[in-house]
Amino acid sequence: MNRFEPNLRIPGPTSLPDAVREAGARQMVNHRGPEFATLQNGIIERLKKFYKTDHDVLIVTAAGTGGLESAIVSFLSPGDKILAITIGAFGDRFAKIATVYGADVTKLSFDWGMAADPAKVRAALTAGGPWKAVLMTQNETSTAVTNPIEGLAKVVKEVAPEALLIVDAISGLGAVPFETDGWKLDVVVSGSQKAWMVAPGLCFVSVSPRAWEAAAVAKMPKFYFDLAAHKTSAESGQTPWTPAVAVMFQLDVALNLMEQEGLEEIWRRHAAVGAAVRAGLTTLGFKLLADPEFASNTVTGAWIPEDLDWKAFNGKLRKLGLIVAGGQGNLKGKIFRIGHLGHVTVPNILNAMAVLEQTLIELGRPVTPGASVGAAQVAALKSLGLVK
Ligand SMILES: Cc1ncc(COP(=O)(O)O)c(C=O)c1O
After folding, report:
1. What's the whole-model pTM score?
2. What was the pLDDT predicted at 5?
Protein backbone atom coordinates (compact mmCIF):
# COMPACT_ATOMS: atom_id res chain seq x y z
CA MET A 1 0.00 0.00 0.00
CA ASN A 2 1.31 3.48 -0.80
CA ARG A 3 -0.31 6.87 -0.33
CA PHE A 4 -2.02 6.71 -3.69
CA GLU A 5 -3.56 3.32 -3.05
CA PRO A 6 -6.53 2.76 -0.81
CA ASN A 7 -6.15 0.56 2.23
CA LEU A 8 -8.32 -2.28 0.91
CA ARG A 9 -9.60 -3.81 4.11
CA ILE A 10 -12.26 -6.16 2.80
CA PRO A 11 -12.10 -9.92 3.41
CA GLY A 12 -11.11 -10.65 -0.18
CA PRO A 13 -10.17 -9.89 -2.82
CA THR A 14 -7.16 -8.75 -0.84
CA SER A 15 -4.48 -6.35 -2.03
CA LEU A 16 -1.60 -7.97 -3.92
CA PRO A 17 2.15 -7.77 -3.33
CA ASP A 18 3.88 -5.94 -6.20
CA ALA A 19 5.67 -9.09 -7.38
CA VAL A 20 2.30 -10.88 -7.61
CA ARG A 21 0.75 -8.04 -9.60
CA GLU A 22 3.66 -8.06 -12.01
CA ALA A 23 3.43 -11.83 -12.45
CA GLY A 24 -0.14 -11.39 -13.70
CA ALA A 25 1.17 -9.33 -16.63
CA ARG A 26 3.36 -12.12 -18.04
CA GLN A 27 2.90 -13.35 -21.61
CA MET A 28 0.63 -16.39 -21.97
CA VAL A 29 1.97 -19.92 -22.40
CA ASN A 30 0.40 -22.96 -24.04
CA HIS A 31 -1.82 -24.42 -21.34
CA ARG A 32 -1.36 -27.83 -22.99
CA GLY A 33 2.42 -27.48 -23.10
CA PRO A 34 5.36 -28.28 -20.84
CA GLU A 35 5.71 -24.79 -19.25
CA PHE A 36 2.19 -24.99 -17.92
CA ALA A 37 2.68 -28.54 -16.64
CA THR A 38 5.76 -27.44 -14.69
CA LEU A 39 3.89 -24.41 -13.36
CA GLN A 40 0.86 -26.40 -12.21
CA ASN A 41 2.86 -29.29 -10.74
CA GLY A 42 5.00 -26.86 -8.74
CA ILE A 43 1.95 -24.99 -7.47
CA ILE A 44 0.20 -28.17 -6.41
CA GLU A 45 3.22 -29.45 -4.47
CA ARG A 46 3.44 -26.17 -2.53
CA LEU A 47 -0.32 -25.97 -1.96
CA LYS A 48 -0.13 -29.41 -0.35
CA LYS A 49 2.33 -28.05 2.21
CA PHE A 50 -0.02 -25.22 3.15
CA TYR A 51 -2.97 -27.59 3.24
CA LYS A 52 -0.87 -30.05 5.26
CA THR A 53 -1.98 -32.94 3.11
CA ASP A 54 -0.24 -35.76 1.29
CA HIS A 55 -3.33 -36.35 -0.85
CA ASP A 56 -4.55 -34.66 -4.03
CA VAL A 57 -5.05 -30.92 -4.34
CA LEU A 58 -6.79 -29.83 -7.53
CA ILE A 59 -6.94 -26.38 -9.06
CA VAL A 60 -10.27 -25.29 -10.50
CA THR A 61 -10.73 -22.06 -12.43
CA ALA A 62 -13.72 -20.53 -10.66
CA ALA A 63 -14.78 -18.35 -7.76
CA GLY A 64 -14.81 -20.03 -4.37
CA THR A 65 -18.47 -20.90 -4.79
CA GLY A 66 -17.49 -23.02 -7.80
CA GLY A 67 -15.11 -24.91 -5.51
CA LEU A 68 -17.98 -25.56 -3.08
CA GLU A 69 -20.19 -26.71 -5.95
CA SER A 70 -17.43 -29.05 -7.19
CA ALA A 71 -17.22 -30.57 -3.71
CA ILE A 72 -20.95 -31.30 -3.69
CA VAL A 73 -21.38 -32.66 -7.22
CA SER A 74 -18.20 -34.72 -7.35
CA PHE A 75 -18.72 -36.83 -4.24
CA LEU A 76 -22.47 -37.04 -3.59
CA SER A 77 -25.71 -38.32 -5.08
CA PRO A 78 -29.26 -36.96 -5.02
CA GLY A 79 -31.04 -38.14 -1.88
CA ASP A 80 -27.82 -38.46 0.18
CA LYS A 81 -28.30 -37.48 3.81
CA ILE A 82 -26.14 -34.52 4.63
CA LEU A 83 -25.70 -32.50 7.80
CA ALA A 84 -24.90 -28.88 6.94
CA ILE A 85 -23.49 -27.04 9.95
CA THR A 86 -23.98 -23.34 9.37
CA ILE A 87 -22.94 -20.31 11.40
CA GLY A 88 -23.63 -17.65 8.77
CA ALA A 89 -24.25 -16.68 5.16
CA PHE A 90 -21.55 -18.89 3.64
CA GLY A 91 -22.62 -21.94 5.63
CA ASP A 92 -26.16 -21.28 4.38
CA ARG A 93 -24.84 -21.04 0.81
CA PHE A 94 -23.05 -24.38 1.10
CA ALA A 95 -26.26 -26.02 2.38
CA LYS A 96 -28.19 -24.42 -0.49
CA ILE A 97 -25.86 -25.80 -3.15
CA ALA A 98 -26.34 -29.31 -1.76
CA THR A 99 -30.12 -28.77 -1.65
CA VAL A 100 -30.24 -27.48 -5.25
CA TYR A 101 -28.54 -30.69 -6.40
CA GLY A 102 -31.09 -32.84 -4.60
CA ALA A 103 -29.28 -33.91 -1.43
CA ASP A 104 -31.40 -34.57 1.66
CA VAL A 105 -29.99 -31.71 3.73
CA THR A 106 -30.48 -31.26 7.47
CA LYS A 107 -29.37 -27.77 8.43
CA LEU A 108 -27.90 -27.24 11.88
CA SER A 109 -27.79 -23.47 12.34
CA PHE A 110 -26.14 -21.49 15.11
CA ASP A 111 -26.73 -17.87 16.09
CA TRP A 112 -24.74 -15.49 13.95
CA GLY A 113 -21.60 -14.49 15.83
CA MET A 114 -21.30 -17.89 17.51
CA ALA A 115 -19.20 -20.90 16.54
CA ALA A 116 -20.73 -24.34 16.09
CA ASP A 117 -21.16 -26.16 19.40
CA PRO A 118 -19.65 -29.69 19.23
CA ALA A 119 -22.24 -31.01 21.73
CA LYS A 120 -25.10 -29.87 19.49
CA VAL A 121 -23.37 -31.33 16.44
CA ARG A 122 -23.06 -34.64 18.31
CA ALA A 123 -26.76 -34.55 19.18
CA ALA A 124 -27.80 -33.76 15.60
CA LEU A 125 -25.63 -36.53 14.18
CA THR A 126 -26.95 -39.02 16.71
CA ALA A 127 -30.56 -38.08 16.00
CA GLY A 128 -30.30 -38.89 12.28
CA GLY A 129 -28.17 -40.73 9.79
CA PRO A 130 -26.56 -42.66 8.33
CA TRP A 131 -24.82 -39.55 7.01
CA LYS A 132 -23.12 -39.33 3.63
CA ALA A 133 -21.41 -36.05 4.43
CA VAL A 134 -21.07 -33.23 6.92
CA LEU A 135 -20.54 -29.72 5.58
CA MET A 136 -18.69 -27.16 7.71
CA THR A 137 -17.25 -23.68 7.34
CA GLN A 138 -13.80 -23.15 8.79
CA ASN A 139 -13.94 -19.36 8.84
CA GLU A 140 -17.38 -17.79 8.43
CA THR A 141 -16.55 -14.54 6.68
CA SER A 142 -20.04 -13.07 7.12
CA THR A 143 -19.87 -13.21 10.92
CA ALA A 144 -16.07 -13.12 11.45
CA VAL A 145 -16.08 -16.38 13.41
CA THR A 146 -13.61 -19.27 13.11
CA ASN A 147 -15.11 -22.65 13.88
CA PRO A 148 -13.21 -25.18 16.04
CA ILE A 149 -12.85 -27.53 13.07
CA GLU A 150 -10.51 -29.95 14.81
CA GLY A 151 -13.01 -30.58 17.63
CA LEU A 152 -16.00 -30.70 15.29
CA ALA A 153 -14.21 -33.17 13.02
CA LYS A 154 -13.45 -35.40 16.03
CA VAL A 155 -17.13 -35.52 16.93
CA VAL A 156 -18.08 -36.46 13.38
CA LYS A 157 -15.44 -39.20 13.33
CA GLU A 158 -16.79 -40.63 16.60
CA VAL A 159 -20.51 -40.45 15.90
CA ALA A 160 -20.74 -40.73 12.12
CA PRO A 161 -17.47 -42.22 10.87
CA GLU A 162 -19.18 -43.04 7.57
CA ALA A 163 -19.64 -39.34 6.70
CA LEU A 164 -17.31 -37.43 4.42
CA LEU A 165 -16.03 -34.26 6.06
CA ILE A 166 -16.30 -31.43 3.56
CA VAL A 167 -14.93 -28.08 4.67
CA ASP A 168 -15.23 -24.58 3.24
CA ALA A 169 -11.85 -23.13 4.23
CA ILE A 170 -12.02 -20.37 1.62
CA SER A 171 -11.28 -17.40 3.88
CA GLY A 172 -8.99 -18.99 6.46
CA LEU A 173 -6.70 -21.59 4.95
CA GLY A 174 -3.19 -20.23 4.47
CA ALA A 175 -3.71 -17.64 7.23
CA VAL A 176 -4.59 -19.55 10.39
CA PRO A 177 -3.63 -23.00 11.73
CA PHE A 178 -5.14 -25.81 9.71
CA GLU A 179 -4.42 -29.54 9.28
CA THR A 180 -6.15 -31.31 6.43
CA ASP A 181 -4.78 -34.81 7.05
CA GLY A 182 -4.18 -34.38 10.78
CA TRP A 183 -7.86 -33.54 11.31
CA LYS A 184 -8.94 -36.26 8.83
CA LEU A 185 -10.78 -33.86 6.53
CA ASP A 186 -11.87 -35.39 3.24
CA VAL A 187 -12.47 -32.36 1.05
CA VAL A 188 -11.20 -28.84 1.74
CA VAL A 189 -11.92 -25.84 -0.50
CA SER A 190 -10.00 -22.56 -0.59
CA GLY A 191 -9.93 -19.54 -2.92
CA SER A 192 -7.10 -17.58 -4.54
CA GLN A 193 -8.38 -14.12 -3.57
CA LYS A 194 -8.09 -14.70 0.19
CA ALA A 195 -5.01 -15.66 2.22
CA TRP A 196 -3.12 -16.58 -0.94
CA MET A 197 -2.58 -12.90 -1.96
CA VAL A 198 -3.66 -13.56 -5.53
CA ALA A 199 -6.41 -12.17 -7.79
CA PRO A 200 -9.78 -13.96 -7.81
CA GLY A 201 -10.24 -16.75 -10.34
CA LEU A 202 -8.89 -19.97 -8.87
CA CYS A 203 -10.06 -22.29 -6.18
CA PHE A 204 -8.29 -25.25 -4.68
CA VAL A 205 -9.85 -28.50 -3.52
CA SER A 206 -8.07 -31.22 -1.55
CA VAL A 207 -9.44 -34.73 -1.88
CA SER A 208 -8.81 -37.72 0.41
CA PRO A 209 -8.67 -41.31 -0.88
CA ARG A 210 -12.01 -41.92 0.89
CA ALA A 211 -13.56 -39.05 -1.05
CA TRP A 212 -12.30 -40.54 -4.34
CA GLU A 213 -14.07 -43.79 -3.43
CA ALA A 214 -17.25 -41.78 -2.98
CA ALA A 215 -16.63 -40.02 -6.32
CA ALA A 216 -16.63 -43.35 -8.13
CA VAL A 217 -20.31 -43.88 -7.25
CA ALA A 218 -21.49 -40.25 -7.02
CA LYS A 219 -24.51 -39.55 -9.23
CA MET A 220 -25.05 -35.82 -9.04
CA PRO A 221 -25.09 -34.18 -12.49
CA LYS A 222 -21.79 -32.50 -13.28
CA PHE A 223 -19.64 -31.34 -16.13
CA TYR A 224 -17.41 -28.28 -15.58
CA PHE A 225 -17.02 -29.00 -11.86
CA ASP A 226 -16.25 -32.72 -12.15
CA LEU A 227 -13.19 -33.12 -9.92
CA ALA A 228 -12.42 -36.59 -11.29
CA ALA A 229 -11.88 -34.94 -14.70
CA HIS A 230 -9.60 -32.38 -13.00
CA LYS A 231 -7.60 -35.20 -11.42
CA THR A 232 -7.18 -37.03 -14.74
CA SER A 233 -6.01 -33.81 -16.43
CA ALA A 234 -3.69 -32.88 -13.55
CA GLU A 235 -1.92 -36.22 -13.94
CA SER A 236 -0.67 -34.99 -17.31
CA GLY A 237 0.03 -31.45 -16.08
CA GLN A 238 -3.16 -29.98 -17.50
CA THR A 239 -6.65 -28.82 -16.56
CA PRO A 240 -9.81 -30.04 -18.30
CA TRP A 241 -10.81 -26.53 -19.42
CA THR A 242 -8.74 -23.43 -20.18
CA PRO A 243 -7.36 -22.30 -16.81
CA ALA A 244 -6.90 -18.72 -15.55
CA VAL A 245 -3.25 -18.79 -16.59
CA ALA A 246 -2.47 -15.24 -15.41
CA VAL A 247 -3.78 -16.05 -11.94
CA MET A 248 -1.64 -19.20 -11.93
CA PHE A 249 1.43 -17.04 -12.67
CA GLN A 250 0.47 -14.88 -9.72
CA LEU A 251 -0.08 -17.86 -7.45
CA ASP A 252 3.33 -19.26 -8.31
CA VAL A 253 4.96 -16.04 -7.08
CA ALA A 254 2.66 -15.67 -4.07
CA LEU A 255 3.48 -19.20 -2.90
CA ASN A 256 7.18 -18.33 -3.10
CA LEU A 257 6.54 -15.32 -0.86
CA MET A 258 4.51 -17.45 1.53
CA GLU A 259 7.25 -20.09 1.67
CA GLN A 260 9.86 -17.41 2.37
CA GLU A 261 7.80 -16.09 5.28
CA GLY A 262 6.98 -19.58 6.56
CA LEU A 263 3.65 -21.01 7.61
CA GLU A 264 4.05 -20.39 11.35
CA GLU A 265 5.17 -16.81 10.79
CA ILE A 266 2.12 -16.25 8.57
CA TRP A 267 -0.14 -17.57 11.33
CA ARG A 268 1.67 -15.34 13.86
CA ARG A 269 1.19 -12.27 11.67
CA HIS A 270 -2.51 -12.99 11.26
CA ALA A 271 -2.93 -13.47 15.00
CA ALA A 272 -1.28 -10.08 15.54
CA VAL A 273 -3.39 -8.19 12.99
CA GLY A 274 -6.54 -9.87 14.30
CA ALA A 275 -5.74 -8.81 17.86
CA ALA A 276 -4.91 -5.29 16.67
CA VAL A 277 -8.22 -4.85 14.83
CA ARG A 278 -10.28 -6.14 17.74
CA ALA A 279 -8.48 -3.91 20.26
CA GLY A 280 -8.66 -0.84 18.01
CA LEU A 281 -12.35 -1.18 17.19
CA THR A 282 -13.27 -1.84 20.81
CA THR A 283 -11.33 1.25 21.90
CA LEU A 284 -13.30 3.28 19.33
CA GLY A 285 -16.47 2.13 21.08
CA PHE A 286 -17.62 -0.47 18.55
CA LYS A 287 -19.20 -3.69 19.77
CA LEU A 288 -17.82 -6.75 18.02
CA LEU A 289 -20.10 -9.38 16.57
CA ALA A 290 -18.07 -12.53 17.14
CA ASP A 291 -17.94 -14.56 20.32
CA PRO A 292 -14.43 -13.52 21.54
CA GLU A 293 -13.39 -17.15 22.02
CA PHE A 294 -13.86 -17.82 18.30
CA ALA A 295 -13.04 -14.40 16.82
CA SER A 296 -11.49 -14.76 13.39
CA ASN A 297 -7.94 -13.66 12.70
CA THR A 298 -8.77 -12.93 9.05
CA VAL A 299 -11.85 -10.71 9.36
CA THR A 300 -13.58 -8.72 12.10
CA GLY A 301 -17.21 -7.64 12.21
CA ALA A 302 -18.54 -4.76 14.32
CA TRP A 303 -22.10 -3.54 14.91
CA ILE A 304 -22.94 -0.16 13.41
CA PRO A 305 -24.27 1.95 16.31
CA GLU A 306 -27.91 2.95 15.77
CA ASP A 307 -27.08 6.66 15.95
CA LEU A 308 -24.29 6.42 13.35
CA ASP A 309 -25.21 7.30 9.77
CA TRP A 310 -23.45 4.42 7.99
CA LYS A 311 -23.59 5.95 4.51
CA ALA A 312 -22.00 9.22 5.65
CA PHE A 313 -19.46 7.34 7.77
CA ASN A 314 -18.47 4.94 5.00
CA GLY A 315 -18.30 7.78 2.45
CA LYS A 316 -15.79 9.59 4.66
CA LEU A 317 -13.75 6.44 5.17
CA ARG A 318 -13.55 5.97 1.42
CA LYS A 319 -12.42 9.58 0.90
CA LEU A 320 -9.59 8.97 3.33
CA GLY A 321 -8.66 5.79 1.49
CA LEU A 322 -10.07 3.12 3.78
CA ILE A 323 -12.27 0.53 2.09
CA VAL A 324 -14.21 -1.72 4.44
CA ALA A 325 -16.95 -4.28 3.78
CA GLY A 326 -20.61 -4.15 4.79
CA GLY A 327 -22.74 -6.91 6.26
CA GLN A 328 -24.19 -9.87 4.37
CA GLY A 329 -27.52 -11.67 4.56
CA ASN A 330 -29.33 -10.91 7.83
CA LEU A 331 -26.53 -8.57 8.83
CA LYS A 332 -26.79 -6.23 5.82
CA GLY A 333 -26.84 -2.63 7.08
CA LYS A 334 -26.22 -3.79 10.64
CA ILE A 335 -22.50 -4.49 10.73
CA PHE A 336 -19.34 -3.55 8.90
CA ARG A 337 -16.35 -5.81 8.46
CA ILE A 338 -12.63 -5.25 8.27
CA GLY A 339 -10.64 -7.83 6.35
CA HIS A 340 -7.15 -8.67 7.59
CA LEU A 341 -5.88 -11.59 5.59
CA GLY A 342 -3.21 -12.29 3.03
CA HIS A 343 -1.02 -9.31 2.20
CA VAL A 344 -1.58 -7.41 5.45
CA THR A 345 0.73 -5.99 8.10
CA VAL A 346 0.22 -4.41 11.52
CA PRO A 347 0.97 -0.93 10.07
CA ASN A 348 -1.91 -1.45 7.57
CA ILE A 349 -4.17 -1.93 10.58
CA LEU A 350 -2.78 1.11 12.40
CA ASN A 351 -3.56 3.14 9.27
CA ALA A 352 -7.11 1.79 9.27
CA MET A 353 -7.56 2.75 12.93
CA ALA A 354 -6.20 6.24 12.28
CA VAL A 355 -8.74 6.74 9.49
CA LEU A 356 -11.62 5.38 11.56
CA GLU A 357 -10.61 7.62 14.44
CA GLN A 358 -10.37 10.75 12.27
CA THR A 359 -13.75 10.00 10.68
CA LEU A 360 -15.48 9.50 14.00
CA ILE A 361 -13.97 12.76 15.28
CA GLU A 362 -15.18 14.54 12.12
CA LEU A 363 -18.64 13.22 12.87
CA GLY A 364 -18.41 14.69 16.37
CA ARG A 365 -18.24 11.44 18.25
CA PRO A 366 -16.40 11.22 21.59
CA VAL A 367 -13.13 9.59 20.59
CA THR A 368 -9.72 10.11 22.19
CA PRO A 369 -7.19 10.91 19.45
CA GLY A 370 -4.56 8.20 19.15
CA ALA A 371 -6.26 5.82 21.55
CA SER A 372 -7.37 3.19 19.04
CA VAL A 373 -4.07 3.32 17.14
CA GLY A 374 -2.23 2.84 20.43
CA ALA A 375 -4.51 0.04 21.59
CA ALA A 376 -4.13 -1.75 18.25
CA GLN A 377 -0.34 -1.45 18.39
CA VAL A 378 -0.17 -2.74 21.97
CA ALA A 379 -2.44 -5.68 21.14
CA ALA A 380 -0.30 -6.58 18.12
CA LEU A 381 2.94 -6.35 20.10
CA LYS A 382 1.45 -8.49 22.86
CA SER A 383 0.28 -11.04 20.35
CA LEU A 384 3.78 -11.14 18.86
CA GLY A 385 5.23 -11.61 22.35
CA LEU A 386 7.23 -8.38 22.11
CA VAL A 387 5.66 -6.73 25.17
CA LYS A 388 3.84 -8.15 28.17
C1 LIG B 1 -16.17 -18.64 3.74
C2 LIG B 1 -16.50 -18.32 2.31
N3 LIG B 1 -17.11 -19.24 1.57
C4 LIG B 1 -17.43 -19.02 0.29
C5 LIG B 1 -17.12 -17.81 -0.32
C6 LIG B 1 -17.52 -17.60 -1.73
O7 LIG B 1 -16.41 -17.33 -2.52
P8 LIG B 1 -16.60 -16.58 -3.92
O9 LIG B 1 -17.18 -15.25 -3.62
O10 LIG B 1 -15.21 -16.54 -4.46
O11 LIG B 1 -17.51 -17.42 -4.73
C12 LIG B 1 -16.50 -16.82 0.42
C13 LIG B 1 -16.20 -15.50 -0.18
O14 LIG B 1 -16.07 -14.51 0.51
C15 LIG B 1 -16.17 -17.08 1.76
O16 LIG B 1 -15.56 -16.15 2.50
Report:
1. 0.97
2. 85
